[in-house]
Predict the structure.
Amino acid sequence: MFRVQVPDQDAPDMERTHDYNFDLAVLGGGSGGLACAKEAAKHGAKVVVFDFVQPTPQKTTWGLGGTCLNVGCIPKKLMHTASIYGELAEDAQNYGWNLTKDSHDWDRMVGNVQNHIKSQNWKIRVDLREKNVTYYNEYATFVDKHTVKSVNKRGSERTVTADKFVLAMGGRPNYPDVPGAKEYAITSDDIFSLKYHPGKTLCVGASYISLECAGFLNGLGIDTTVMVRSILLRGFDKDCSEKIGEYMEQCGVKFLRPCVPNKIECVKEPTDTSPPELRVSFTHNGEEKSDVFNTVLFAIGRKPLTDKINPEAIGLKFDPNGKIPVTEEELTNVDNVYAIGDLLNAPELTPLAIQSGRLLAKRLYAGSKILTDYVNVPTTVFTPLEYGSVGLSEDAAIAKYGEENIEVYHTKHTPTEQVVREASPLEGYNYAKLICNRADNERVVGLHYLGPNAGEITGGFGLGLIMGATKSDFDRLVGIHPTSSEVFTTMNITRRSGQSIDVEDC
């Protein structure tokens, strides 16, 4: 016999010791803010969520749910999947399928992606109502540390008071100080709902957003170029990052590196069904050049919306880049104001924002003491060669523990599903490595993987790092054959040895 405890969805209101309108006000209706609001309401708090999307320079806007659902993880993964289907259609020939790869229908894909997103926008609103969370589609700014003034799209205002506040507004893409950038270019806020085929596209930036967009665009048969100022995927493992760049070049993505844009001019206006023609002037390897593109997408970083909520009214401290310093309990310098998600100096990841939001609500209203772990956070970059990682990069591990204490086990591998492919320049890029601390019984402090299904593989192994797994623990694990994940159970070549990893076992 066992007993299942069902949470009380109709938790009674808490005994209140204040006269404010709400116990908790959340600014921002993205993944983290919504998770925090619903968890707080579950434990009896009276909660309100404010969310309002300011249109992009290209007048794009979206519904409730934040960046991830509307203009981030979800549409990105769907379009990445669309590009993979094109690749699989080619591979299918070698498995006996007589398929033809016709041209891709951009409008159909965008329509289906947006239909899914809109269905989720509606479900979120229903979910908030069922969980007794008040939702205002209004832009809120502080009046004092217990009061905000909000404005809706019609200009109507309201004033709301709350005992505590959680800041979860996230951020928006940066634009460079380049003539024509805001007038003619787009960002990831626009690409997933673009009403015309993007045509020849320039992705400016070496961020994961830029490379992911360039990857799926190229996979859909679109002429794609990436403009890189310096290094790829800053903050990620350099070894893996460079392999991704090499692989993308083999896929047909062109790179301008080192290169920076100087000016964007429109030489042909867009229509309802066709993109514009944009002349981009740039400096490439010290030479002034120009080229014409149909779409220019900037992905050069994001800026938190901290300065848009009148932080001066409450004396909120934040860094020049907009990030908010917080304690380990996500408390800002204002004693009743907390911050989570992309506002922090932490990985900008949806699951991390959700986790921190839920744990914060449990500490505030359910007596929990559990804090968020911001170190061992699995993540995946959905480039054509997918990249999953958890823990430290090789450079970060060396900086933290010393080069003499770091042992790197690594290997190449060929996924079984790719062994019947015709010989191609894309072979030899699937890669995995474990970064171990020799001074701590070879505890694994970093795991990195390049290959198919990177998210599924990395997410599972992430638990091992959280629990302090060592290299011997990985060796004791029996892998599933034939899968890519089993390479982590059979690694025996170290970088220190100098032995080649080009020869694979069966």
Q: What stands out?
A: Residues 106-130 form the longest helix (25 residues). The chain has twelve helices and 21 strands. The CA atoms of residues 13 and 44 lie 5 Å apart.
